[in-house]
Amino acid sequence: MLETRDLTIRFGGHVAVNAVSCSFASGTLTAIVGPNGAGKTTYFNLISGQLKASAGTVSLNGRDLSGQPPSARTRAGLGRAFQLTNLFPNLSVLENVRLAVQATQEGPHRRGLNLWSIWSDHQGLTARADAILAEVALKAREHDTVASLPHGDQRKLEVALLMALEPQVFMFDEPTAGMNAAEAPVILDLIRKLKQDKRKTILLVEHKMDVVRELADRIIVLHNGQLVADGEPAQVIASPIVQEAYLGVAKA
Amino acid sequence: MSRVLSHDLPRSRWLAVILVALLLGLAFAPFLFPGVKALNVAAKVVVFVVLVASFDLLLGYTGIVSFAHTMFFGIGAYGVAIASSRMGAGWEALAVGVGAALALSFVLSLAIGLFSLRVRAIFFAMITLAVASAFQTLASQLSSFTGGEDGLTFKMPELISPSFEFAEEPFLGASLDGRLLCYYLLFVLAVVLVLALLRIVNSPFGRVLQAIRENEFRAEAIGYRVVVYRTTAAVLSALFATLAGAMLAIWLRYNGPDTSLSFEIMVDILLIVVIGGMGTLYGAAIGATLFVVAQSYLQDLLRMANEAVTGVPWLAAVFTPDRWLLWLGLLFVLSVYHFPTGIVGRLRARALARR
Amino acid sequence: QPKEIRIAHVYGKTGALEAYGKQTQTGFMMGLDYATGGSMAVNGKKLVVIEKDDQGKPDLGKSLLATAYADDKADLAVGTTGSGVALAMLPVAEEYKKVLIVEPAVAASITGDKWNKYIFRTGRNSSQDAISNAVALDKDGTTIVTLAQDWAFGRDGVKAFKDAVKKAKIGHEEYLPPTTTDFTAGIQRIVDQLKDKPGRKVVWVVWAGATTPFNALADADLQKRFGIEVATGGNILPAMTAYKRFPGMEGATYYYFGLPKNPVNEALVAAHYKAFKAPPDFFTAGGFSAAMAVVTALKKTGGETNTNKLITAMEGMSFDTPKGTMTFRKEDHQAMQSMYHFRIKQDPAFAWGVPELVREIKPEEMAVPVRNKR
Amino acid sequence: MSNFDWKPLALVPVLALLALPLVGSPSTWLTLTVAGLAMGMIIFVIASGLTLVFGLMDVLNFGHGLFIALGAFVASSVLGLMGDWTGSQQLWRNLVAVFPAMLVAMAVAAAVGLAFERFIVRPVYGQHLKQILITMGGMIIGEEFIKMVWGPAQIPLPLPEALRGSLFVGEAAISKYRLLAVAVGLVVFVALAWTLARTKIGLLIRAGVQDREMVESLGYRIGRLFVGVFVAGSALAGLGGVMWGLFQQNLIPQMGAQVNVLIFIVIIIGGLGSTLGALIGALLVGLMVNYVGFVLPVATQFASIALMVAVLMWRPQGVYPVVKV
Amino acid sequence: MNLLELQGVHTHIGAYHILHGVDLVVPQGQVTMLLGRNGAGKSTTLRTIMGLWHASKGRVALAGQDITAAATPQIAALGVAYVPENMGIFADLTVKENMLLAARAAKRAEQMDAARLQWIFKMFPAVEKFWNHPAGKLSGGQKQMLAVARAIVEPRQLLIVDEPSKGLAPAIIDNMIDAFAELKAQGVTILLVEQNLNFAKRLGDTVAVMDNGCVVHAGSMADFAADTALQQSLLGLAI
Ligand SMILES: Nc1ncnc2c1ncn2[C@@H]1O[C@H](COP(=O)(O)OP(=O)(O)OP(=O)(O)O)[C@@H](O)[C@H]1O
Ligand SMILES: Nc1ncnc2c1ncn2[C@@H]1O[C@H](COP(=O)(O)OP(=O)(O)OP(=O)(O)O)[C@@H](O)[C@H]1O
Ligand SMILES: [Mg+2]
Ligand SMILES: [Mg+2]
Fold first, then answer.
1. B129, B341, D151, D314: most buried, per Cβ within 10 A?
2. ipTM score here?
């Protein structure tokens, strides 16, 4: 179980995430919605350690992770994908994934601190990376460098890296943004499949309400950094604050 | 074979041919190219291959731009120089010198590696530039220890000194003496060190370094503690540079601030990495050979060119050996123009295109 | 019997000391020409000069000298400009058992503890510089502060100077970083040391390199404000432009074309004016002297280039130079030579401050210590 | 500007005051402080071109020193032709000689800068490593050309008569030339700061460095702008060369390389792209060198480096970063 | 009348042949939607129009003028505003400075058209809210708003936007659709690449669909919207 307590960050005078306390049980997919700039990505950044909280704590299964650097949190089981694509642009698609697979390894080849074995000898890593690429339908381009991929494929790779980490908590930040209607289902199917594993916790930031409606077990709403609604999807979507501030229905 | 090269094969037929030629050329240099000058050039090539390869680990693989690399080169050379001149010629002196130098390099590179995390890339580069120049000043100021500007001249163990002759008659034009043994000592050392580096860059560790070079932020996010890898790379590269410095001192039996610490050498290293192709150790080897040979024979070449054009005064003024630096400068500019991805990059791209 | 005598001249043809090196080469060739009466041959053997550019780099100097001896079969060598390079070259001469005439590197240790029997030096050494300056300044009731660069060259010079000063008092030694560009602080320190001292007050400067403290010293107007004089040795002509602002300044120099009066110097000045329409400079004279030494020695051996014969011929050998007669003393092969006590005069005809001869300091007047171990 | 950050500006007086007890005598302190500030101004002038080229355009120009040397050598030729004017005791006649020298030096440096941008820098915008190499190459070539034109030897560049010597206030001395340098430095500072703050040029360059294509998509000819700024930077370096040459009164072809590290330090202390920062950096370096030179001369060579490291520990981007790295 | 015309455009990136003869027309005063799968070459087409990549064959014409070989600034100066796929935000510059750069007529911030700014602020509140903040600190959606705001800060005749709705909250998407409609009413011609089919249907007048570096369908939006079978075959829609 992932839990944040009074998680807060200030940028100068601006409070981007304001005392958000929330816990996420395994086996549920929680959608996080809210207007642009509500603090969704920032909230993810605080959980995964890219930003240091001004106050509050993050804990996973009761273990406090607040002081840890991002790498340690990832190893503890917090995995995330980024909203704006953030990959290793001049390495091949396969190597990108392989690096992520390697990062999860324990034992003698632990996280690449091994200076003396030969990388390509680790066949297991390659096989696993291949499997993941097949899952996101990127196998055909595995030897291309990431920089030459179209935008949509880069978004898929972003998700592939997250899958490779095999975390306990998956944080998706608008995984299908910029992906066309034919491709998005590949990713959504993946997420659906993940949902079936009851040990996993999934957090999903998404602006497409049809997707949210279909996938979410629970929705929380962030607005101006604050947690303003939390509950059943239907009920939350119907709430006035979502209708007005987010969907802009009142105006229309 | 493939294992010896850590499965990092040349991936281009031409590249393979060049590398083999290079290896054989260096292995038989004393017999193929007789003469003192040729042997000196070959030895310098050998030292520079190690030095540049060690720098490539830092620059090409990890993406850290540091101008302080000659500092470690200098430490290695001074280690041997100071120990040999204080303790007298001998293997113990060598061991002590190299050991002390490695220890000092370790500490300094650790500090620098950690500091590199505090400031961003270009600033770090400029700081190392300043630190390196300060270190050079320091080396010439501590003259009671380092011989100051004048440097130190010292002797090597008998076995690898020129005075040691193990056969009267020259063999294939090369005199069989300690100098020859010394050359082979360096050559074997260089081969071992380069293979070790090749192993390191092709290990899981090496791959993480490349990931950090590409996108440090993401490398951290997928679970690699960037500080650890970066610092380790900085330390390793410093240690290899230190060894290269020791090799230089062993060969020259002399060391001084200009010989191993000067900014000029740093720039040469940079140029070699770029000519050869960043992020490929093979590039370091080819680049080093090309550059050192060009640099050593540039003046001779110009002398010939100069004689050819003596009739045309202004041409002669440009082609005089005194203006060899002009041509070196041009070499800098042109190689950046024509080898954006280095020689290795070029060759590999050709091989790919052919496929 | 080979028909030619091969002489390698290693010098800083390019690099920071390019200007100095080229003067030496010019002087050397003029000297050979003069010494052989234009024939460029001794005993019918042609003199062949092999030029090597050490670029001011010790490691390169070393390898070039070895190349010259081994690959180019040089019989003897002359060089080089930088002291560091020269020091690195000394063991090579020993290794190949060939003579090396050092010119113009000044470091005392070349003929001191780093010396070996193949090394001769026609150039002055830093002791000679310092001692002659001491002779020029050493008076009762004088307080001297030295101002030097903080490196071996500076400290050597000051030490030799101090050893040679007998009557005057050395008030303070000021060392500044070799690359100093702003002398305000250094001058301030010197003034603080010197301003309240009784009697004659002198700052003696020993400084090599392009940026010298003289302009800063002149700007500070020490003479008028505190009665502090400035003194220094000689230098190349462009550097002596700064001396123009110190009329009456005294010191001792190695060479200035107007100072020595002898036929060799007259020949050098005439030849140099003819070739370049300018007077010969500091290092030209040195190169000329080295050539005179080479030819004199070869004449003595009858054109033989056998190293031992050369050494025997050269030890104690006297030879004519633009600075009068020099003698390689037996102990350390250092050429004993005259130095010139001068006083600066402003002369609008010259761009530099002109040194006028106060008196020639003869070799016998200078107790130049022997520092080598034989 | 209510939220102006005063702290770095305050660093200058703070450093001066801290030095007072260490130096001891107030008159010595005054001499050192005034000389240090004036020295800082000279350093600022030689570094000012680099605030444009390195600070704003993000070009690691190791050849910048070349323009400094070039400016100095050109000035020596121009002043050499005007012997009557420089030899005069009258200040105005001297200045009449110095100003054309500055103008010609700037013009020559600008012209060479134009070629340098075209052939050396243009292919490597945005690639630091290659910039270092190619500009080093350019620098070497340029230095050799200087040797071919003016000879390899050092050449004197005597100060015009009336600018020599010092003004004396009690025991404290201030050399006259430094006062001129302060004036020139202030003019350069105001001109630069005004242009960058009041026109879009500064913005465009910063934007162009981040995303050249986008700036072009907005309709600006970034190529021309970069040329212009590079040329301006070179001209400023030429001016700096005149000032530096007259200060040293002695020129060697390598003089450009010798100031390279110094000016990079100044720009880094100041923060990339900031004119004010560069000024503060230069003043701090000028003061620091003088104080340390007085209190502990051996440490002088390390003073500016230590200063830089200390500043970066405090502000990793320099004191007034305009361009963030 | 067609404002923009591409005839048989081929584009290479390095050794890769990306566009294989694109034919595309953008009628004056209308909204044209460019659709297609990931990697179909939509962004490449836009970049080729802007002169960021040059066509190796074929012809690009703007208002009858050949711009195939023209430089990007020249094309922009003809009155084309472009929002690239990666938004092209100058992260170190403040929002204000970003806007100022796009306002070519204004030398200083005060000289920007105040009324137009107010109009932009109303649609994209984040732009006003973060006016003096570095643009790099904006959230993903806020950056997207800034990118579009920047393209419309001054009137232009042709507006080209690569995926305008990406990452935007539904309310803001509505605003954006209103904005484009208003611009169209002012006579601006608009070319949009869009993945969001709803968005495309609501706004588009004509449509072109790309696949594999070619335009494989072109026609009116109304027809396309009605024909689900066509949509399915061209875009691979599951629904
Ligand atoms: N490093 C930062 N410095 C200053 N402000 C920041 C920083 N990061 C985020 N912010 C501000 O915090 C607020 C929340 O941003 P965040 O990226 O979390 O929004 P979001 O909910 O993910 O929006 P979107 O849906 O547009 O992606 C924004 O107003 C943004 O400007
Ligand atoms: N810099 C590049 N180098 C090599 N190939 C590239 C490069 N940029 C794009 N491509 C290739 O060009 C093709 C078309 O890419 P483009 O970005 O135009 O697609 P797109 O239709 O915009 O896709 P998306 O909807 O994902 O943005 C892709 O196959 C891509 O791999
Ligand atoms: Mg977000
Ligand atoms: Mg696209």
1. B129
2. 0.88
